[in-house]
Amino acid sequence: MKKAAIVLCAILVGMGLVLAAGEGMEKEHKAMGKSHKMTVELVSVDMDAKTITVKDDKGETHTAPLLGKAVEAAKNFKAGDKLVVTCLDNEKGEHTGVTHIEVAKANPGKS
């Protein structure tokens, strides 16, 4: 009987930790704001400043900070590459940085 009570307590404590961790992740995600993807052409990467400059489909250039794993990923690309970047926005909808970079898939319908 004592062993069953100890096992039950251990399970309940474990479940509590999992739930607490989930709440912490949810709060962190909300604090980060929203994100969206953009297909762009790479203009340049400044590894010292940890920024990326891209040209959007309207021909306008934008420079943004590289965040997280995007810092290392940016080393793999060169000017002129077509990319899909994930931009992180704050609660006001303003860009705060680029969190992910990947090669844009070719569109077979266009020449």
Structural description of this entry:
With 111 residues, the chain is of the alpha+beta class. The chain has two domains: 1-32; 34-103, OB fold (Dihydrolipoamide Acetyltransferase, E2P). 32% of the residues lie in helices and 36% in strands. It has helices spanning 2-32, 70-73, and strands at 34-46, 51-55, 61-65, 82-89, 95-103. A five-stranded antiparallel β-sheet has the order 3-2-1-4-5. Strand 2 (51-55) and strand 3 (61-65) form a beta hairpin. The chain is elongated and about 70 Å long.
Secondary structure class reads: alpha+beta
Rg computed from alpha carbons, rounded to a whole number of angstroms = 21 Å
CATH names the topology of the largest domain as OB fold (Dihydrolipoamide Acetyltransferase, E2P)
Strand order of the largest sheet: 3-2-1-4-5
Mean pLDDT: 80
The proportion of strand residues reads 35-45%
Distance between the termini: 74 Å
Short structural description:
By secondary structure, this protein is an alpha+beta fold. It has two helices and five strands.
Topology:
Layout: H1 2-32, E1 34-46, E2 51-55, E3 61-65, H2 70-73, E4 82-89, E5 95-103
Antiparallel strand pairs: 1-2, 1-4, 2-3, 4-5
Task: Describe the structure using short key phrases.
111 residues; alpha+beta; OB fold (Dihydrolipoamide Acetyltransferase, E2P); 2 domains; five-stranded antiparallel sheet
